[in-house]
Amino acid sequence: xxxxxxxxxxxxxxxxxxxxxxxxxxxxxxxxxxxxxxxxxxxxxxxxxxxxxxxxxxxxxxxxxxxxxxxxxxxxxxxxxxxxxxxxxxxxxxxxxxxxxxxxxxxxxxxxxxxxxxxxxxxxxxxxxxxxxxxxxxxxxxxxxxxxxxxxxxxxxxxxxxxxxxxxxxxxxxxxxxxxxxxxxxxxxxxxxxxxxxxxxxxxxxxxxxxxxxxxxxxxxxxxxxxxxxxxxxxxxxxxxxxxxxxxxxxxxxxxxxxxxxxxxxxxxxxxxxxxxxxxxxxxxxxxxxxxxxxxxxxxxxxxxxxxxxxxxxxxxxxxxxxxxxxxxxxxxxxxxxxxxxxxxxxxxxxxxxxxxxxxxxxxxxxxxxxxxxxxxxxxxxxxxxxxxxxxxxxxxxxxxxxxxxxxxxxxxxxxxxxxxxxxxxxxxxxxxxxxxxxxxxxxxxxxxxxxxxxxxxxxxxxxxxxxxxxxxxxxxxxxxxxxxxxx
Length: 488
Ligand code: BG6
Known about the structure:
CATH architecture of the largest domain: 2-Layer Sandwich
CATH topology of the largest domain: Dihydrodipicolinate Reductase, domain 2
CATH superfamily of the largest domain: Dihydrodipicolinate Reductase, domain 2
Largest sheet: 9 strands, mixed
Strand content: 15-25%
Radius of gyration: 24 Å
Bound molecules: 6-O-phosphono-beta-D-glucopyranose
Structural class: alpha/beta
Distance between the termini: 41 Å
CATH class of the largest domain: Alpha Beta
Number of strands: 17
Number of helices: 15
């Protein structure tokens, strides 16, 4: 059964000359168009401040496709058919006068108008007002919002209030691109499509959970944005808390937007606040200094930035979800820039067997571990104990061996899509399941704000770590104190 969809007639793309548009949005839209997945008549109206005309934007888009789409997936016919959908309208989003021309280019959209805002948040208010004034925010319009949506609870409320004046919540699609990643959805399949794990998926069966999102990149020229954000706001507030919520939530009654988001928000609201009293024991922050990543020397963060800074490029946190299911189970979160490898994974560390029958035979047991790897390749593996072949005259030998879901092999014939392909299509087809609801965002900010306030109150400063290492040594101590090692 396919879910009902009301595909849009037009996609209106703000920020159309930006980095995200080049690297992700245009390649994603091309991918969908080339595979016949976009509604046949869908037009794309692109807008930004740059004074281009439509042929000029076509040249811009063609270059982006050349850079970011592998050659074997580019054909002249597909590129030209894709460019035919694109119209460009230059617009100073802060000036209401320009929106008339935009509305003219958008034209009639009886089936629906999907708007995607990938602009600086300072422009959100003016853009929303401009859209409303030009009649582009009517009943058929829905709006996708790219992060950052504020830098704390108060500023996110201001943005959400401004959007809510014009768009009701069910027509607001807040993007967290991690929710578009295949393995993230596979987490739902793993948990709720198999009877195996659920009985153990609680404080009775699980010792702790680790979530790591490690990146090798540094500032990447995002000086203005990143230094005002830091790892906690850039990665934990959104992506990592969404992953945590999907791991920890109760089974939703159905795979639909309300049921799933209802369950996630309950988890986010159950996060134990980390305030001034616990902050130094429960969190570690770091900032990278010069070092080497992948064998190449790289400068430190302050050198890249050109001035000293107290922004954290690494954060590790010991979190708790205070509810019945997760009583006493730590969730260790860790993310950072300039770490040794690009590696995102969720580790579910199960408890050991209650009694080992092998003790007298000298065999050591290790508790089972489920490794859900998101990046660089998707993979799910369960580490289990198995007997090493042999006659066991000197005792039984057991070894940890992986039971590998081998997604790469099982689905070798299926192309892995960019997260934005799915999210753009969902926006175009009006399916909000994989977008973040306001109550979730606010619960996320509330928890994050308490942590930040704690850092300020306790005077915590980022500890230096050399680029190419796994963060400050205090991050290792954070788990080792509990007898737990990070899974590197
Ligand atoms: C973004 C952050 O949201 O996610 C970036 O702003 C980060 O700092 C990126 O690099 C990571 O995304 P991915 O998909 O490469 O893991």
